[in-house]
Amino acid sequence: MMNNLIILPIIIPIIAGMLMVIGRNMLIFHRLLSLVANISVGLVSVLLIEQIRVDEIQVLNLGGWQAPFGITLVADMFAVMLVLVTAIVTSCCLCYAFSSIGIERERHYFYPLVLFMIAGVNGAFLTGDIFNLFVCFEVMLVASYVLISLGGTRIQLRESIKYILINMISSFFFLAAIAFLYGMTGTLNMAHLSILVAEIGEGGLMTAVAFLFLIVFSLKAGLLLFYWLPGSYSAPPPAIAAIFAALLTKVGVYAIIRVFSLIFYHEPSVTHQFIGILAAITMVLGAMGAIAYGDIKRILTYNVLIGIGFILAGFASFSPAGMSGTVYYLIHDMITKALLFLLGGTIIYLTGTGKLKEMSGLIRLHPQLGWMFFIAALSLAGLPPLSGFIGKIFITRGTFHAGYFWLGGIGLLSSLMVLYSMLKIFMNVFWGYTNFTEETEKGTTKGLLLPIGMLTALTFTLGLGAEGIHEYVDMAVMGLMDPSLYIDAVRGGNPW
Amino acid sequence: MSWFYLFIALPFLYAITVPFLYHKFNPRIHTGWFILIVPLVIFCGLSSYIPAISAGETFCLTFPWIPAYDINAVAYIDGLSLIFALIIAGMGFLVICYSIYYMSKFKEALHNFYIYLLLFMGSMLGLVFSDNIFVLYVFWEMTSISSFLLIAYWYEREKSRSGAQKSLLITVFGGLSMLAGFILLSMITDTYSIREMISKAAIIQSHSLFIPAMILVLLGAFTKSAQFPFSIWLPDAMEAPTPISAYLHSATMVKAGIYLVARCTTIFGGSAAWFWLVTGIGMVTLLYGSINAVRQTDLKALLAYSTIGQLGLIMSLLGLGSAALYSKVGNEGAVYAIAIFAAIFHMLNHSTFKGCLFMAVGIIDHEIGTRDIRKLGGLMHFMPISFLLVLIGSFAMAGLPPFNGFLSKELFFTSLLNAAEMSFFNMNIWGIILVIMAWVASVFTFIYCMIILIKTFLGEKKDYKLKQKEHQAFLSMLMPPLILAILVIVMFFYPNVLVQHLLQPAWVAILPTLAATVPLQIVISPWHGFNTALLLTIGVILAGTLLYKTHEKWRSPYRFYPQTFTINNMYDWVLEKIETCSRAVTNWYMTGFLRDYLVYILGFTILLVGGAAVLFEGLAFEFSRNAAVNMYELLLLSSMVISALTVLLAKSRLTSVIAVGTLGYMMVLFFVLLRAPDLALTQLVVETITTVLFLLCLYHLPKLKRENSPLRFKIVNGVVSVGIGVVMTMVAFSAYSNHSFAPISSFYLNADKLAGARNIVNAILVDFRGFDTMLEILVLTIAGLGVYILIKLQLARGKENEGTK
Questions:
Q1: DSSP A268-281
Q2: SS3 string of B466-525?
Q3: Which of A313, A483, B21, B521, by CA, is between 20 and 30 Å from A278?
């Protein structure tokens, strides 16, 4: 079904951002517009979800050029659900930024940059063209380069250099991989690629190219090749770090899932099992990093990695159960990671330090913050009845079903390590004797608790109300497990 | 929807109101008074099910939670769940009543305390009634979490925190294993319902995943019920307020594992593995708990170890009873099944006498200010009622008449003696060893029971060591333990009322398949004549008395036991090792140097892409379709190689920049040769501008220093860079040689007709793929903004970082 709505999640943030660049000093206008833009993207995606539920996958051939010759946007349930979660998470992070990011960063185009990045993220979710995926990645990355260095403090500059260089290399690999694939198939449209690759078969060369794509996306997702991540996610202020942790790595995960379920799905015993091995190593290394240090930011960033590994463990099983788990857990992870980075940022903001040893007894003055952190910690560990629980069950079931008992086992053990590392923060920061008063605090929680509360409520609702979204998750999984649905929607009845 | 769900939901719903009640009425009215109604309502409500259940009925109610995945809150009410639920509600009532006097309304954060308590009560009720394995798991973890919060209720204390953490880590570990086991079971049977799994027990037992599933589920049960070697969390959990120790850590939560094993008996029972694991671990735990209890000096720690021992006893009974399900057992099944009955009976008895003891110890602690045996003595004259309570509790625990512990202890010996005569599971060898282990453990049990009673209440009064003035506790604080003490005696004289209404249905509920073939009937009489079991008991009393009298002399070996080898130390050691190892490993590969990270990434690419291409025979070159290479091209190519090498070897930045520029201009010439004038023009402009910009910027930089990196680095760098170049080139050639389809670009040849553009490249850029171009323009805009911001905005100039240190 052709549908013009699909372009809106990409174009609304761009237009809003451009308007802000023009009206540079009207900060109230910046705040309002950024929020309005995000909420409207959210509404559009709700509309789209409803249309997909009724009419199946929606497609837009840009410029009216018939696929595979032009660029096609494809809105399937999986993609649009992620667009919706992106809108929600970004809105919360923006609310948090209103009272924490500081006027200097606001005046230096913080909001437009966030919106441009969101445009790239949404584009990556919605595009059905592999070269356009590259371009969307570029939009997202360039905006993130600027955001990570926004403020120009020493640590930011140091980490952004590494971040930029590694991402440049990955962009080069991406371009090369696209070129190789184009050389072999002569097309860029992902649905078309799917058909042609199925025809050629995944021989040795195709597998090599598939692995090159895997490396590119793994670099973005933080799957094994995550060395840039711990440093660069702890450099920017919490609102930015939260958006990064919630969204950027997930775009990489999305790309892996999309490409390896739509195009390279013929040899799961090679490619998917390999993804499973990478996921297992990532979980182990992430868990080691998470328990190794006594610094909030480091603990949180390594927890990002564990989440990535766990999501892809479900995908690696390539079974309906594992895939349901992956979709549930992906949504859950986007929400909780944003929540945790906002919470961690607030703690650092209040105490002026990130070292666990220097904090104690915060709960006496900030009970709400403490309990929300506790809930977030449990949610992150996938404890019931919070949002990670259903995903955890299905991912474990999927891995067991595929015979990857080691993978499921590592997944479960890593969630124990997540719990350990999060409770270490909770017990050190919030429990113990209160060693400061309201006067000695470095900041206030004014205006910060609302977005945190919203995300906390969301993780509760998604856990208890898992039934409410199952229909959509099932549709997303159906689309991922059966590429012909996607292909037929793009082809629209034309013979290729 | 049934009223029944209210009983499970009530604690949760009520917990929401607690903060309001606390803030409104405290300290005028103790918050506990408001809470008291919750267990009372539940207890009365559940009692109304007793007649129907004892008549053999069961109820199954379904409350949809996630029906799409068949995860529903299915409440299954049978004898087993009912007896547990009644203990939870009944003990809950008594403990809350007790806590009203124990927890000061002026000093304590009562709202937290009662919220945690209600959360626990609701979860525990949910746990025992859940038929759906995943819902059971939900409640299982929620009991762990509420227990964590309750242990760390005094969160300022270091010991409370570490005790809470230890209990949570161990029980959540068990919970996760149990979840894995459940998932395996659900894969084998294709159902999430425990009852349906029971009906498919035969399929499970013959499945290859039977043993892993069983071990995983048992790990859950053993960690929760503090079985050896997971028992270490229970003594540390004694940091919780005493009402909590009495409630969670002796009467209810630690019995969750017992419940699970009982529930799963029909699923796994009958196999030698189950029999030996459950019996063996239970027996070892019994010995471990009772032997360790004797050396404790803190009354609560002593009770904790005794709880471990008693839980082991119950566990081993469940194991022994599972023999009744052995396929070749025939009619003897009913005899072995008595062990299961004894387990439930002892579980109930333990809740009464241990609750009574904990509360009495709490009174001592509360009134005297210490619970250290060495500082206590001669309290009988000052606290006669407490003395009576401890007397009844400890005698019941020691298995003496006329208290209920005697009856179940006798059944324990009887079951063991029955089992010793089994002709299967190697019992002909091991049977007698089990009996000896049980007897020894009982002797130690007798000794520590005497220690509690005699050291505390008899002997000289040591008032010089006491801080507070001792006096008899408030009557209301004594009420709950008194009720339990009375129960202990009543159950001895009238056990058969209980048997008929509660124990018998629970027994049948554990062994539904057996009960269908063999009638499970038992009548208990306080006096059962002289038999081997009674002789064993008399032996226990004699040996125990003797050893108690002399225990000061033989206690010294305990002191010599090397402390470094305790499980507690191992736990600490492992935890510390994990942390230090993790730090070492993480520091080792996360060097912070970009150079290292690039080596990892590129090396990984070489191995993966190159490896796949070679291993799966993907490399194939086909140059026959290519045009011949002419002289100009060779010349160009060689000058490109030279300029690339110049970049690497140049000593000054200027040379490198110029070499890079040269490389670009060669590329322009290639475009010209290949008849792409517009590309050549674009490239020319880009090259010129970048070279000029580079030169301008580099002019301001200091001189290039010679890189003095060790040879090792240089070799690695060389290998990696050559490798990546080779791999990418090989794959590129192969990809080029392998094109099997006509590319879509032939479509664009009609650009004139389609888009009205003579220039195909332009048509692609602005029309066919105009969206890409728009986004690329956006990229340039953002990059421009970025440069501007980088120059303009420098927060905290000079400082390391803003805000934080």
A1: TTTHHHHHHHHHHH
A2: CCCCCCCCCHHHHHHHHHHHHHHHHHHHCHHHHHHHHHHHHHHHHCHHHHHHCCCCCCCC
A3: A483
Contact B224, B140 (CB under 8 A): yes
B731 interaction partners in chain A (CB closer than 8 Å): 180, 205, 208-209, 212
| pLDDT tens per residue across span B363-396 | 888 877 788 888 887 777 778 888 888 899 999 9
Q: What is the mean pLDDT of residues B58-66?
A: 86
Pairing verdict, β B71-77 and B59-66: antiparallel
Helix (H) or strand (E) holding B66: strand B59-66
Name the residue ranges covered by the structural domains of chain A: 267-482
Q: Is B594 on the interface with A (CB under 8 A)?
A: yes
Nearest residue of chain B to residue A15 (CA atoms): B778
Percent of chain B scored above 70 by pLDDT? 95
Cα distance between the two ends of chain B? 58
B597–A187: do the CB atoms touch at under 8 Å? no
Residue B292, pLDDT score: 87
The pLDDT, as a whole number, for residue B3 is 78
User: Sorting pLDDT into bands at 50, 70 and 90, what band is B559?
Assistant: low
Rounded to a whole number of angstroms, the distance from the CA of A180 to the nearest CA of chain B is 5
Cβ neighbours of residue B731 closer than 8 Å, sequence gap 6 or more: A180, A205, A208, A209, A212, B609, B610, B613, B618, B619
For residue B118, give Cα distances in angstroms to B76, B425, B455, B477, B554. Answer: 22, 44, 36, 20, 45
Average pLDDT over residues B589-596: 88
ipTM: 0.94
CB A52 within 8 A of CB A76: yes
**Whole-model pTM?**
0.92
- By DSSP bridging, strand A58-61 and strand A72-75 are antiparallel
pLDDT exceeds cutoff 90 at B751: no
Domain boundaries, chain B: 1-246, 272-554, 592-740, 754-805
Set of chain B residues whose Cβ sits within 8 Å of the Cβ of A397? 183, 186-187
B334 pLDDT above the threshold of 90: no
Please say whether the beta carbons of A290 and A423 come within 8 A: no
Residue whose pair of structure tokens reads 């919070």 in the numeric block? A386
Nearest CA to B651 among B610, B601, B694, B706? B706
CB contact under 8 A, B183 and A348: no
CB contacts, 8 Å: A390 with chain B? 66, 69, 71
CATH topology of domain B592-740: Four Helix Bundle (Hemerythrin (Met), subunit A) (1.20.120)
Of B346, B222, B329, B224, the closest CA to residue B277 belongs to: B222
Contact B802 A136 (CB under 8 A): no
At B641, the amino acid letter reads V
Nearest Cα neighbor of A9 from A64, A60, A65, A71 is: A60
Using a 10 angstrom Cβ sphere, with 0-12 exposed, 13-18 middle and 19 or more buried, the burial of residue A465 is middle
Among A203, A353, A396, select the one facing B616 at the smallest CB separation.
A203
What is the reported pLDDT for B462? 66
Peptide bond into B557 cis (omega under 30): no
Chain B residues lying within 8 Å of A469, measured CB to CB? none
Q: Which H/E stretch holds residue B33?
A: helix B31-35
Which of A33-47, A327-341, B455-469, B560-574 has the least mean pLDDT?
Answer: B455-469
Biggest distance spanned by C-alpha atoms of chain A: 72
Residues whose CB is less than 8 angstroms from the CB of residue B239 and which lie 6 or more positions away in sequence, other chains included: B151, B152, B154, B157, B159, B160, B163, B164
Confidence of residue B796 (pLDDT cuts 50, 70, 90): low
**What is the nearest CA distance from B227 to chain A, expressed in angstroms?**
20
Whether residues A155 and B800 touch (CB distance < 8 A) is answered with yes
Q: Please write the tens of the pLDDT for every residue from B521-558.
A: 777 877 777 788 788 888 888 888 888 888 777 766 66
